[in-house]
């Protein structure tokens, strides 16, 4: 499994994007990247401005959708609406 020290810049960007989205649980991030909620918080603190980090922490703290144990719908694999889908072996372009 990957840990914080071995995440590429692209992986870190993806973790930040997933953590920022309200419906992505910390468990979904753990499954995909192998990092704990505490490590996600550390990444967010390191990569964001202090005011943005504080706003994010206030928003996600105790939120059901960020904590799968509090959520009745547990996601094991998350797909962002921004991710491109593949059809007929060609990557679809957003319009």
Concise description?
The protein is mainly alpha-helical and 95 residues long. It has helices spanning 9-20, 26-33, 37-47, 50-60, and strands spanning 86-87, 90-91.
Structure description:
This protein has 95 residues and is mainly alpha-helical. The chain has helices at 9-20, 26-33, 37-47, 50-60; strands at 86-87, 90-91. The protein has one domain (4-75). It has 4 helices and 2 strands; from the N terminus they run ααααββ. α1 (9-20) crosses α3 (37-47). The model has no long low-confidence stretch (mean pLDDT 76).
Number of strands: 2
Q: Based on helices, strands and strand pairing, what is the structural class?
A: mainly alpha
Please report which band the strand proportion falls in: under 5%, 5-15%, 15-25%, 25-35%, 35-45% or over 45%: under 5%
**What is the molecular shape?**
globular
Rg is: 14 Å
Q: Order of strands across the biggest sheet?
A: 1-2
The domain tally reads 1
Q: What's the main sheet like?
A: 2 strands, antiparallel
Mean pLDDT: 76
Count of helical regions: 4
- Helical content band: 40-55%
Topology as a string of helices (H) and strands (E): HHHHEE
Protein name: TIGR03643 family protein
Pfam families: DUF2805
Biased composition (Polar residues): 83-95
Organism: Belliella filtrata
